[in-house]
Amino acid sequence: MIEHHVRVHPSADRLSREDQLAWKLAAVATGTGDLDADSTAMAVNRVIDNASVAVASLLRRPVAVARAQATAHRTATAGASVFGTSARVSPEWAAWANGTAVRELDFHDTYLAADYSHPGDNIPPVLAVAQHTGRTGADLLRGVIAAYEVHVALVKGICLHEHRIDHVAHLSAATTCGLGALLRLPTETVYQAIQQAVHTTTATRQSRKGEISSWKAYAPAFAGKAAIEAVDRAMRGETSPSPIYEGEDGFLAWMLNGPESDYTVLLPEPGEPRRAILDTYTKEHSAEYQAQAIIDLARRLRDKTGPLENVRSVVLHTSHHTHHVIGSGANDPQKYEPTASRETLDHSVPYIFAVALEDGAWHHERSYAPERARRPETVELWRKITTVEDPVWTRRYHDPDPDRRAFGGRAVITLHDGSVIEDELAVADAHPAGARPFDRTAYAGKFRTLTEGIVTPAAQDAFLDVAEHLADLSTDDLGRLFPGVDTEAVAAHDASLPKGLF
């Protein structure tokens, strides 16, 4: 790997393009050649994973609204597919609809380092453009793997959340690189598109604070749509604010650490295999990633606690992020509110621990149902649960060694009789270092579980077979990566939505 040091430069420095981060990222994309076999296999897993959660969310309101907007932009030539409909639409709108479907349940892959990310958010826009431009399965894989490579590098090197900047700013740059690799664009074109995409997708983290709204699902879809539009403009010869990262009025200077900003981004050398996708991991449970190990821990503790009315208090000792973003350290009263939105509840680790402790299981719909959240005994237990930041867990969260990095915590349960029950779990069971690391069989099982009753068993088999052979798919076969569903039923559901402009 090559260390690229990124700092603010005054305009008078006339920083050369080749020394700018955007150019370095573009060079990684355009230099992506033969694909690593392990990376290719993992990319197939993530295509399966995305389809699983997209189909499971088809009738949820944000997804239906995004789909209605997209299908208002049908195209008679080329175009791209949308989950839940047979329509072909303009690729940026397909990315919008499919990106929302993938993100809605907070149930696909993750990568955590200096910042946060869901690298699977890159797949919908890359797939949409692959379809629209007549690319093959091998082309799609090249684009996906390049996007993951850049996304992981940015998330390792540059922290956004400490400045309350939303993580989709890294996503848009990664997606643009994935599109550049997919289309084999010149480095100059990708460089210009990255800068446009980053400039237009920088937003605050208020979308993940307080009463969290449906925009949490839309935000990555918006970034993907913006990346496609930026690539289109750059291909037509349009230029961008430059240097977007290092400029004296740029991203680092005014959004991050200011004029003294100094970051190090590790990027692969020319010819080095693109393997960053192997550092990422998916979710077994539909909740914020830092809650994954907490759910598994609650399930393990369930047999040790006895009747839960005997619980006096629960304290979860965990990392800075878990405490301040999804724990009581966020100081968001909504995280303890039984009428809170689903988006808020899946970012409330006290709620999640309470339900998992009561049920010994987690379900992407039942665990968030309004009647479930309002159950009196659940509310009583929920409000006994707090989090504290433990420096040990914060250090483990940021450990540079992926084999030691941990996203879990320690639960201390005090009963009314004064007895204490303690246990801890470093990583989720499904994590690569966990008790049951996800493999191809697990991804296929997740797909079958989430699409049961929506996709017929025969159609499930057909989709999994196509995904298994993704590297060999022709242009015409890419549409088969969208599992068959009852499109008439979906259309009937969408017909009840309020109308907008389109």
UniProtKB/TrEMBL annotation:
Pfam families assigned: MmgE_PrpD_C, MmgE_PrpD_N
InterPro entries: MmgE/PrpD_sf (IPR036148), MmgE/PrpD_sf_1 (IPR042183), MmgE/PrpD_sf_2 (IPR042188), MmgE_PrpD (IPR005656), MmgE_PrpD_C (IPR045337), MmgE_PrpD_N (IPR045336)
Superkingdom classification of source: Bacteria
Family note: Belongs to the PrpD family.
Protein name (Swiss-Prot/TrEMBL): MmgE/PrpD family protein
MmgE/PrpD C-terminal domain residues: 285-470
GO MF annotation: an example: lyase activity
Residues covered by the MmgE/PrpD N-terminal domain: 30-262
